[in-house]
Amino acid sequence: MTTSARGLHTQVLDSLGLAITAGEYPPGSVLRTDEVAQRFEVSRTVVREVVRVLESMHLVESRRRVGVTVRAAEQWNVYDPQVIRWRLAGADRPRQLRSLTVLRSAVEPVAAGLAAAHATPEQCRELTEQALGMVATSRGRQLEAYLVHDIAFHRVVLSASGNEMFARLGDVVAEVLAGRTHHQVMFEDPDPAAVTLHVQVAEAVRARDGRRAEELTREIAVGALKELDVLAP
Questions:
Q1: What gap in Å lies between CA 93 and CA 99, rounded to an integer?
Q2: Residue ranges in the chain assigned as alpha helix (H)
Q3: CA 189 from centroid of its chain's CA atoms
Q4: Which long-range contacts (CB under 8 A, 24 or more apart) does 61-68 make?
Q5: For residue 4, is pLDDT > 60?
Q6: Any idea what the Cα angle at residue 203 is, between residues 201 and 208, rounded to 5°?
Q7: How much is the pLDDT for 2?
């Protein structure tokens, strides 16, 4: 696929993905390939490629003699990072953020407890480095720089758990954290208490104190839910 074709593919995919997840195309709606191609002024080949991606996310299904049909939300692959990104960009953002944050609160404390037992010396070192990076960027409205360290920190926790299912949630958590920042569901500077908790989690993992790592991570999750009560009620 040429660079130009990839650009068109991305444009059409984002437009349709955002529209479907926002409910502009209710379940059962039929997307006609010819109409989509005409609307976006792209070839049918581009539209077919886009449809294949949307099918892989379970947002649509192709039916012979019917066309491309939008599926019910219950059938979507809600763990797909792109689906999460689209949903966070829509009007349903508060509910989506809360749903994902509750998921984090269920998984990450356990992952942190396991990380205390399974993290390699390299992972312990990286966890500390990312926590200190969060401290360094937590003042002066450096949210984008802070986000880089925040995402990396949580990826390490999930990966260091030694559980491949938890590790695969790294992209999901990354989208949640990025969505909060990019859609201004964050204070101008991160909560100092939350930043300190991340440092303490790194210390607990390095000290092989699983119980403390789990408790501290649960405090982080509770704090994130409280922030949503204020910023995305």
A1: 10
A2: 3-21, 33-40, 44-56, 81-88, 93-118, 121-136, 143-160, 164-167, 170-182, 192-206, 210-231
A3: 21
A4: 66/30, 67/30, 67/31, 67/32, 67/33, 68/30, 68/31, 68/32, 68/33
A5: no
A6: 95
A7: 52
* Burial of 144: CB neighbours in 10 Å, binned 0-12, 13-18, 19+: exposed
- Which residues are CB-neighbours of 212 under 8 A, at least 6 positions away? 116, 200, 204
Is residue 7 pLDDT above 90, yes or no?
Answer: no
| Alpha carbons 36 and 125: distance in angstroms, whole number | 50
d(CA 168, CA 155): 9
DSSP conformation class of 75: G
Other Cβ atoms less than 10 A from the Cβ of 112: the count is 30
Instruction: Print burial letters for 10-44: b (CB count within 10 Å at least 16), e (below 16).
Output: eebbeebbebbbeeebeeebebeeeebbeebebee
Task: Kindly state the tokens that stand for 174.
Answer: 């990354």
Q: Which residues of 167-204 are buried (b: 16+ CB within 10 A; e: fewer)?
A: bebbbbbbbbbbbbbbeebbeeebbeebbebbbbbbbb
Give the whole-angstrom CA distance, residue 77 versus residue 171.
Answer: 14
Q: Which two tokens stand for residue 179?
A: 């969505």
* pLDDT tens digits for range 198-233: 999 999 999 999 999 999 999 999 999 999 998 888
Residue 5 has pLDDT above 60, yes or no: no
pTM across the whole model = 0.90
Q: Which residues contact 178 (CB under 8 A, 6 or more apart)?
A: 85, 147, 151
